[in-house]
Amino acid sequence: MAITRLNITEFLRKSPDGLIIDVRSPSEYKHAHMPNALSLPLFSDEERKVVGTNYKQQSREDAIKIGLDFFGPKMRSMVEQVEMWMQERNLDIKQTPLFVHCWRGGMRSAGVAWLLDLYGFKVFTLHGGYKAFRTYINELLNANYKLKVLGGRTGAGKTMFLKSAKENKLQAIDLEGLANHKGSSFGKTNGVQPTQEAFENALGIALSEIDTSKEIWVEDESARIGDVQIPNKFWANMRAAMVAYVDIPFEERLNYLIKDYKIVLNEDLTASTLRIAKRLGGLETKNVLQYLAEDNRKEAFRILLRYYDKWYDIGISKREQSPIQKFTFESHDKFDWKIVANGKN
Fold first, then answer.
1. Which pTM does this prediction carry?
2. 29, 127, 175, 299: most buried by Cβ count inside 10 Å?
């Protein structure tokens, strides 16, 4: 078989039919990688450092020889790892293509591609490597998009509604889902967040998979979602976009939040409350903590919801450049995308 080299657009277009194999070192992969890529490092972090040092201080030839010393003992286990991935996914070992890349599309991907091709896999490599992928992602993040923002106070169900957009033939991107964070001081109870670069990769890929000539719905967010930052250009597009403000009654939102945070531990809610204690105020903080200690979440959330309503109202009032249209629904069940998307209340 012959190894085929692809540019980034061809690589991403074809790769859903196979497995993306990232042969960079473990720390490079951990920092950020292509969504769905599998880690098959040619070198460990220490081995990569040794090879790189010899390349700079000795010669390219010396670096290659040292690299071969590291590579040789791993050849069988690398092939068997790929076979295992194939078997776990019930894929045809001889027909399923492998899409291999390293950082620049150089010797690391070439070496692993040679091995996998020699064994009988169908192999493609990426011209320019992960660096080319990042250039592609940055181009996507810096483009202009026809965004529409779904706004509303905390507990309005914006994330839930966004997830139903596709059923209504609308395009939407769940930024909080990509950031693995609920977008408030309480969002950290939702798990570990991706790195900034990994978040950007996920957002870029999401943009690449939809028709960007049409409207895209996103949720109203701050510039930061937990520890990650919405890319500047995309954020500017959001701030200039029309806001569809979904108004749900206070008690409805309160009950929604209680259900939404049902599996979150009281100790995590306590830690989140302490993070906003200064802005919440001493008395209100004390009351929330007391209610949580008594496992009275409804009254604790009542105080917190009033707090977040106040700050959301301040934030929405600063949207001087973007038009805001309000849509009032009696409950979450009454929300109707046809009304919101068509701009008719």
1. 0.90
2. 175
